[in-house]
Amino acid sequence: MLAVNAFRMKKKLDDIDVKHIIYRVTKPTIVGSERYRILNNLARKLSYRYRSIAIRYTPTEDFNGVIIFGSSDLEDEITEGNLKLERVERGVGLNIPHLKVHSFFYELLRAKLEYHGFWPSAYNRYYRLQDEPIDRTFRIFRGAFFRFEILEDGSVMLILDPLTRIVSYDTVHELASQWGDVKAKRILKGRYIVALVVRRGELSRSLLKVHEFRPDLKAGVDKLIDINGRKYTIKEYYSEHLKLPKVADLIPDDAPVIEAISPDSSRMLHIAASMAHLNYRTNDIPPDYVKKIEQYVFLKPEQRVALTISFLDAINPLTHPYNTRIGTYEFEDELFKPGEERSGELELPRLKFKKGTKQVDIHNYTRFFRESIREMGVAREISIPVDSRVAVVYPENYITDNEAKRFYNDIITASERVFKVSLPEDPFLWGYRDDPSRVMRNYKRFKDKVLAAIVILRSEDDEFYAFFKNLFKDKVSQMATARLVLLRKQLPREKLHRYRNAVINLVSGLLGKLGLRPWLLEEALKAKMYIGIDLLPGRASVLTLMDENGNYIDEIWMTLRGSKINSDDMRNSLYQLVIRNITNTKRDDEFSIVFMRDGDVYPEELEGMRSFIESIANRHSKVKYAVLSVKKNVPYRLYRMDDDKILYPNVGSYAILGEKHAILASSGYPIIRNRLAKPLLIELVEAIPAGWYSIYDALKDSYRLSFMHWATLTQKTKYPAPIKYADDLSYLISKGIEITGPPL
């Protein structure tokens, strides 16, 4: 039996009778990109002012307002700063047109957590104020990542997952004293700290990014904080302005100052180094402490469930700390168990190779692909032009020409043994140092001879990455690092398979870009076409196209100004991408397509998809479509319950929460051992005509497509391939790298 870290509220939406008032901002007119920020700030101020819950309300483009819950006797007109509001409507309950109901519960839980000293680190991630010291070496903060899900039947689900944050045992002041000022400035710049702060008169903490460590400024000497024209030292700010002498006592006069920035603000803050601890990254932890720390971070299933229930006990029932009229919301105190009919384990797909088909062996994942390709050949072969050559570009001051040539020979060997493809034996060897112009000149001279480029970078974050990608944008290029090349000589014989597997992965990506398809799906997917949609806000949006057999077909991208794709751009991009790839279809042929959006599907994006479908309906008499939202950054967890044991879920485990919501462990045991997989949340946003595509179809398609990324012979991807490819392409395009074909 499977269980989910979700807890159902005992009331349904229709049973909630909280009173509310809708206000509209009458002056000044709020338009433009600052609209939501202004209204969110207004809602926060009104929540604090009335000790209630206020939420931004924008049902139309020209309505700017807020809803205040838990009060029915407020004034008809409100002034807050320069904003004037007037009452529009009074009502009861949460069934308000265009209201994002989740917001009510999020604000209620945040109010309760902050009242009890919990502090936020990111969206819906809160930690307890008090830390746990570990061996006078580290400090650990425990917290939770939470989410509310509103299901189709009006059920409200609270999802909770424990969080752990590791910081230095010593304060930044103490660390800097050990390092010295010069080293401290270098180490701390750009790092994150957890600092003691005061919120609404109470001690709290905040996750801040260090802009500059300032040992030349002292927290008890330099007057850095300006309040209405009066200047204070950091110590005076707490003792005189905030009237918190006990906090001021934590600050020595000679404590250095940290200039820091909040992640959700550009405002510079001055923090006493004695009130901050360094947020630890994985590579900050000494090797001999890694195992010890892992037991606190990588919790076993029973530990994670115990912490989840403990956190639930701390907040259940959910009430407002000041306003009883907002109501009491009690949740069931056991993990949600959807039952055998709505949960289980999806069957592993059968994959098609040249000479046959084979079901994925998840227990021998890497060996399965390597041996299947060797035995049965690739699903789609390629031919290599006789006179072509591969350009091997390498950093001369990191590796020698002999090492670069030997690395290419290993690539040739892997290509022949695994994929039965003979790459050109005599490569171009082009070295570079701090100036890649010599490579550019060689490429221009021999461009017609170059089949592909293998570029060895100095490091994973090499500044020349974008340069080389753009230089070879008309060819296939595959990147490696000097570290990988040298790994061949550094690894002991018993671990040499790590190097060989990395080379096989590289070759798979290289050949995939050249058109080779190592495998395809034996059984066709539900629809004929699958569109993956991903974007980087303010930079680029990408749409990829795959077919019913899991074959990558095409892509299209466009620059993006905001955080959503507008209706016209969505329609036009879909039309261009699809029409150029269905030239041989007839009017009576069925046209079925599934849109897979990474993250939320916004109303204007859905409108663009519908508009595209309308245009397709003029060309095809049988049109079906479905829209999926696929999310990975969610707090869901799946547990396998076996009598009194709580175990890791297997790959392919799923749980259906409602007719439109389900979670899928597209990775898990045995691929991930001793760690709990983070499942995907899949939402069926729309399916027309009704009934042709269900949430179970969405689970099955998403799972099978997660096996269709051809550069993952050694490590399975979590995302379905259409989204994974779109995600990788959007990143490349945002860096100014324009490529075509699958980003392998």
Description of the structure:
The structure is a single chain. By secondary structure, this protein is α+β, with helices and mostly antiparallel strands. Among the domains are: 19-92; 381-513, Response regulator (Rossmann fold, 3-Layer(aba) Sandwich); 524-734, Ribonuclease H-like superfamily/Ribonuclease H (Nucleotidyltransferase, domain 5, 2-Layer Sandwich), CATH 3.30.420.10. The chain has 18 helices and 37 strands. The strands form seven sheets. Strands 2, 8, 9, 10, 11, 12, 13, 14, 17, 18 and 19 form an eleven-stranded antiparallel sheet that branches. Strands 20-35-36-37-32-31-28-29-30 form a nine-stranded mixed sheet, with helices on both faces. A hairpin with a 2-residue loop joins β6 (77-80) and β7. α15 (567-579) packs across α16. The radius of gyration is 29 Å and the shape is globular. The two termini are 37 Å apart.
General form: globular
Low-confidence sequence ranges = none
CATH-level-2 architecture of the domain at 524-734: 2-Layer Sandwich
Number of helices: 18
In quaternary terms, these chains amount to single chain
The amount of beta strand, in percent, is 25-35%
Mean pLDDT: 93
Q: Considering the protein shown, what is the CATH homologous superfamily of the domain at 524-734?
A: Ribonuclease H-like superfamily/Ribonuclease H
Q: What kind of sheet is the major sheet?
A: 11 strands, antiparallel
